[in-house]
Design a protein that fits this description.
With 454 residues, this protein is an alpha+beta fold. The protein is built from nine helices and eight strands. Helix 4 runs antiparallel to helix 5 and helix 6 crosses helix 9.
Length: 454
């Protein structure tokens, strides 16, 4: 009874310790530190991302499936043992005169023994089957499909890492700018309060600055929470624990400048290089093989088998004694199956396969046209993002100059708090537009690279 009482306490203690370790990442010795540039982050994700790992497993599984299909046409060996207990033997009636009895009378006789055992083995070999030949071709297409799926996963993960990396940098840059704006505004508010206390300005000017400062504090706290979420999203995309430490070495400005390549958007687009088009072609190949399979089912199939075994009979279970007699048997056989008439069922399945193939061809043409449209849209979006970046940068410089002039005028009493507040809002808006324009350049470039499969 005492032992039973200790078990729940032990389980509770272990659970509590595990929970404390999980709730406090700093106390978890398994936490790791990662320092990544964007290229390093992409390389890490292409190995450790959860979707990438499973995509690799799909390829391994498809290789095993290919061998499974190949093995179906190779020699197959099976063995077994059959044991029978004839606890009630079947009886037959025969003329009694066979045993010296009266004519036209019958005797009841039981044939066989109570126990029988058979040890057998079979070697079978497929000689010809059109369906098997098509299945071998299909297994290669099956493997190619998952290799293409892996490539598609890689391109999607690369784009996801770029987007998540940029979102983290955007949040960090926003926090830095907001803290700078907050420090500047706090100093201006302090000076304004001193001026108000001297009776040189109205209280409304102080209150207006306090409203702006409160708004900045709220936005700053929101961006700090947003940065935490952005970091966790990036960690999940990279395939690392969300409690691990992560530091990014690339800056938003550096990445933006490195992605300003208008010549890149002028390159020719080849639909055949796009992974979605390749997968659509793979789908068409599968439908072609399905049609060949239906046609192959109308061909004869030929197989051979070799059987070998031993049988034994006993009224008592003594099969493993030295005096037990085992009677061997063996035979070889060839089987030829010739499809003759299926009430047009095979013809119907063949027609269905033809229709499916025509649908796949139409889908391939549709995919080609859609990809050309996506490329044109992605190219336009990227070029627009580059133009917007230049515009946002220019507007930010103007907004900074206007805000600086209004600040000087306000502190000297030459401008109202409303004019200064308008200049501040204009500056804050252009700061966010500028940061967003940099992220847009990076993301739009990634989207364009995804389509051209770079």
């Amino acid at each position: 009874m005492k032992k039973l009482f200790l078990i729940p306490l032990l389980v509770f203690a272990i659970s509590a310790k595990a929970q404390n370790t999980t709730d406090n990442p700093q106390s978890n010795p398994s936490n790791k530190n990662f320092v990544f540039s964007l290229e390093q982050a992409i390389a890490h994700a292409l190995t450790n991302n959860y979707s990438v790992i499973n995509a690799n497993r799909d390829i391994e599984a498809s290789k095993e499936k290919k061998w499974e299909t190949t093995a179906a046409g190779l020699p197959q060996i099976n063995a077994g043992v059959d044991f029978t207990n004839n606890f009630v033997l079947q009886k037959s009636v025969i003329p009694a005169e066979f045993f010296g009895g009266e004519p036209e009378t019958y005797a009841t006789v039981a044939f066989g023994t109570k126990y029988s055992m058979i040890a057998r083995s079979t070697l079978s070999q497929l000689i010809f089957d059109g369906s098997y030949i098509v299945a071998l071709q299909a297994s290669k297409t099956y493997l190619k499909y998952y290799e293409n799926a892996k490539q598609k996963t890689d391109t999607e993960i690369k784009e996801a890492v770029i987007n998540a990396y940029g979102n983290v940098l955007l949040a960090e840059e926003s926090i830095a700018i907001l803290e700078k704006n907050k420090a500047t505004l706090e100093k201006t508010l302090s000076d304004t309060k001193a001026t108000f206390q001297n009776g040189l300005i109205e209280e409304e000017s102080v209150e207006q600055l306090q409203i702006t400062l409160t708004s900045i504090n709220s936005t700053l706290n929101y961006n700090k929470r947003l940065a935490e979420v952005a970091y966790k999203m990036l960690k999940i995309t990279l395939g690392i624990d969300i409690n691990d430490d992560l530091k990014l070495t690339d800056s938003l400005d550096k990445l933006t400048v490195s992605n300003l390549d208008m010549a890149f958007s002028k390159s020719e687009f080849s639909v055949n290089d796009n992974i979605n088009y390749q997968m659509a072609m793979n789908f068409q190949e599968q439908r072609e093989l399905e049609l060949k399979l239906q046609k192959a089912k109308a061909l004869p199939s030929l197989s051979a088998n070799l059987n070998f075994g031993y049988t034994a009979f006993k009224d008592e279970f003594q099969f493993f004694t030295q005096n037990q007699n085992w009677f061997n048997y063996s035979n070889v056989g060839v089987g030829l199956n010739i499809p003759i008439f299926s009430s047009l069922a095979r013809s119907s399945r063949t027609q269905q396969a033809k229709i499916a193939l025509d649908q796949a061809k139409t889908q391939l043409s549709e995919a080609e046209q859609k990809l050309k449209l996506q490329y044109a849209a992605a190219k336009s979006d990227y070029e627009f993002s580059v133009e917007e970046y230049a515009t946002a940068k220019s507007n930010l410089n103007l907004a900074e100059r206007i805000e600086k002039k209004q600040q000087i005028k306000f502190t000297e009493g030459l401008s109202s708090s409303f004019d200064y507040n308008d200049a501040q809002r204009q500056l804050y808006t252009n700061q966010q537009k500028y940061l967003q324009s940099m992220v847009d350049v990076i993301n739009k470039k990634a989207a364009l690279e995804k389509i051209i499969n770079k």
